[in-house]
Amino acid sequence: MNRKEKHERKEAIALKYDQTIHDAPKVVAKGQGRIAENIIKKAMENNIPIQEDRNLVELLGELNINESIPEELYSAVAEVFAFIYRTDREVGKRKK
After folding, report:
1. What CATH number does the domain containing 38 carry?
2. In this structure, what is the dihedral angle of CA atoms 6, 34, 73, 65, given to the nearest 10 degrees?
3. Which of 48-71 are b and which e, b meaning 16 or more Cβ less than 10 Å from the residue's Cβ?
4. Rounded to the nearest 10 degrees, how much is the dihedral formed by the CA atoms of 63, 58, 27, 72?
5. What's this model's pTM, rounded to 2 decimal places?
6. How does pLDDT run across 18-75, given as a tens digit for each residue?
7. 56, 60, 65, 67: which sits with the fewest CB atoms below 10 Å from its CB?
8. How far is CA 41 from CA 2, 44, 61, 63, in A?
9. Using CB atoms within 10 A of its CB, is residue 11 exposed (0-12), middle (13-18) or buried (19+)?
10. How many domains would you assign to the chain?
11. HEC string of the chain?
């Protein structure tokens, strides 16, 4: 780990998507430093998959809490949700 990585502040964005209620995923939590660490810790405690993508976090970080993601980010966020669905499916197979 180089010096820059060691001193970089963690950032985290939590998204929620319920297609029966929302047209697009919404930002439900975001933060840096300890707040980001708490978001990540909560996700891990609740077995919510985590995907790291600094560029996407930077773009989503410009949104407000409860704001839907813009159409320009649909493709990138769709990749995240595809990752989550694959992970959930794999975990489900292991539990059987």
Report:
1. 3.40.1690.10
2. -160
3. ebeeeeeebbebbeebeeeeebee
4. 70
5. 0.74
6. 889 888 999 999 999 999 999 999 999 998 888 888 888 999 999 999 999 999 998 8
7. 65
8. 24, 5, 19, 22
9. middle
10. 1
11. CCHHHHHCCCEEEEEECCCCCCCCCEEEEEEECHHHHHHHHHHHHCCCCCCCCHHHHHHHCCCCCCCECCHHHHHHHHHHHHHHHHHHHHHHHHHC
Query: Within 10 Å of residue 17's Cβ, how many Cβ atoms?
Result: 17
| pLDDT at residue 30, rounded to an integer | 96
Lookup: tokens for 47? 């077995």
Q: Any bridge partners for residue 26, and if so which?
A: 16, 68
